[in-house]
Write a structure and sequence with these properties.
Helices cover 45% and strands 15% of the residues. By secondary structure, it is an alpha/beta fold. It has one domain: Rossmann fold (3-Layer(aba) Sandwich), CATH 3.40.50. It has a seven-stranded parallel sheet, sandwiched between helices.
Amino acid sequence: MTMTLDGKVALVTGGSRGIGRATAIALATAGATVGVNYRTRASAAEDVVARITGAGGHAIAVRADVSSPADVTTMVETVTKQLGTVSILVNNAGIAEPRTLDTLELSDFDEAIRVNLRSAYLVTAAVLPAMRSAKWGRLIFMSSVAASIGGVIGPHYAASKAGMLGLMHGYASQLVKEGITANAISPGLIESDMIRGLSHVTPDRVPVGRYGVPEEVADIAVLLARNAYITGENIHVNGGSYFAS
């Protein structure tokens, strides 16, 4: 059933900008207390916190490299101590370094897997014991339409995002009886620093004729956090790019 998020604690990785920022704010608006994770952009994360607290919500910024087990442990301990047990996790942190078939190196592939996929596993593993104990949790994995159609970044990025779908399905199938849902969101071309840095990509590439905005993705994260009956799903938010491929 659909429910309020009042009293729930959310952790959004990569929450200082773009989709992560919009998701942190949207969850707070829906009633959740939010841990805003960042790695290097402290001022941007604090700005998100100020936006939430200024509207009457409660949030903290917490630094961590989420591909580091030690950092993840410290981050979850900090959020738990200051806000409470994490019951909603949005695995959003990631990198998107464009590479062609001719420029892609093994180091690029390894880095995409480490930052985009390994981090999702590490943070999920860190918060899952408390969710299982409480018999309530929401695991949300920010994948990409690239996992299904290849995308504009490169095979390394597409592979890392496809891996997130497998991870999500594994958790969904094993946690379905424990009050914990696991779902993914696959955005298409969303207005962001990444898209602005791709000179060869233009809005007319999207069937609806424009880029999406982060808030349109954040709306789905809130829906998944509120809904207890949706699990094991990958929701596309891409302006028609998936069905048109």
